[in-house]
Design a protein that fits this description.
It is a single chain. The chain is mainly beta and about 375 residues long. Helices cover about 0% and strands about 45% of the residues. A six-stranded antiparallel β-sheet has the order 1-2-3-26-25-24, with no helix packed on it. A four-stranded antiparallel β-sheet has the order 4-5-6-7, with no helix packed on it. The longest helix has 4 residues.
């Protein structure tokens, strides 16, 4: 057994392990010691997590189910009344976000893949949660044109301080679409809760441009969150081989994909020889090699004062949690956490209980709390 208990010489040091080859019981980072507490398991590739006012949680499963966790127990029967959706490739039921006034109006928003005779696309529906059922469901956004590919749906969403909804749509695996303002793919759209273009959207005066666009040149955004102090919307997106990016959304900005990138194609061939170009934004931070980021949240708890204001990002490919120290909207330090947990991290959320919550992307996926000692 002694040879199975080993120190990991990286920034997140493991203190003890539960068994030979098992995930450790106690982790030690630069700022804290913590445990991972499993809240629920048995979820099929959970994708997104939302916290209800009564202390329960909603979890989306990519396979097309919306699940409820109440009093620490996963309810057996999924929430009824979901919109029609398609489970194909990377697509399925994706994000769930609550309206800022959910406690009063019970409105929530779902992003998901949808298919018809014209192909697949990313859709957003608004519905009202009544008990264990969604009612009055209405499609409020649909990215057009559709295509036959089943990748890069994006689908992450967030509300800003004005109650406007930001919706990410991937390039759908067709790179040039991300530079075409007449095509909904490859950008972030800002809409009202009824699906109308948000007042003041930056491209409304351009005849051919879609008037819901807020930014473009985005490959496949997999994380989106509102900064707790500034209110800015922060995102991260997958690069190809290398070039995963963290960005702060700015209206009308072109983030460059595929004209500029710090990554290369999956074949090993260059996509472009440019990493910068006039009129295109540089990432706030990027990873090379790729970590396949997914989910992100700012830490606002009080249990670990040294984490206040830090950004936590999950990683699918490298199966870890990344802590980015932020100072004046700049990344000044990076620390890898839970590197021996051995799970793909799909979502990261700051819970109302003051701790970080994670989703693991597996056929037997888990909801996990990161509990400081």
């Amino acid at each position: 057994m002694a040879q199975c208990i080993r120190a990991l010489l990286v920034s997140a040091t493991i203190i003890t392990t539960s068994a030979c080859g098992a995930a450790p019981e106690l982790y030690h980072s630069e700022q804290a010691r913590f445990r991972l507490q499993t809240v629920a398991s048995g979820l099929e590739h959970p994708w997104s997590l939302a916290f209800l006012p009564d202390g329960s949680q909603l979890v989306t499963e990519r396979a097309g189910r919306l699940r409820l966790i109440r009093d620490g127990q996963l309810t057996a029967t999924p929430i009824a009344g979901l919109p029609e959706l398609a489970v194909s490739g990377q697509g399925g039921l994706l994000d769930v976000v609550l309206h800022p006034d959910f406690a009063d109006n019970h409105l929530l928003f779902l992003s998901y893949a949808h298919e018809n005779d014209d192909g697949l696309t990313t859709r957003v529906s608004r519905a009202r949660l009544e008990g264990a059922r969604l009612v009055d469901s209405e499609v409020i956004f649909e990215a057009l044109p559709r295509s036959g590919t089943s990748r890069h749906f994006a689908g992450r969403m967030a509300f800003d301080d004005d109650g406007l909804l930001y919706v990410a749509v991937g390039d759908r695996g067709d790179r040039p679409r991300a530079q075409d303002l007449g095509d909904d793919a490859g950008g972030v759209h800002r809409i009202t809760i009824n699906g109308d273009p948000a007042p003041g959207n930056p491209f409304q005066s351009q005849a051919r441009a879609r008037d819901t666009f807020y930014t473009y040149g985005n490959r496949n955004i997999q994380g989106m969150t509102r900064h707790p102090l500034s209110g800015d919307i922060w995102t991260h997106e997958h690069g190809p081989r290398g070039g995963d990016e963290v960005n702060i959304l700015s209206p009308g900005t072109n983030y460059g994909w595929p004209e500029i990138t710090y990554g290369i194609g999956y074949s090993g061939l260059a996509i472009t020889d440019k990493t910068e170009q006039p009129g295109m934004a540089q990432p706030l931070h990027y990873w090379d090699p790729s970590i396949a980021p997914s989910g992100m949240a700012f830490y606002t708890g009080t249990e670990v004062p040294g984490w206040q204001g830090d950004l936590f990002v999950g990683a699918l490919k490298l199966q870890k949690l990344v802590r980015l120290t932020i100072r004046d909207s700049q990344v000044v330090n990076e620390e890898d956490l839970i590197t021996e947990f051995g799970r793909r991290i799909r979502d990261v959320r700051m819970g109302p209980d003051g701790v970080l919550w994670l989703l693991t992307d597996e056929g037997n996926g888990e909801v996990v709390r990161l509990v400081p000692e």
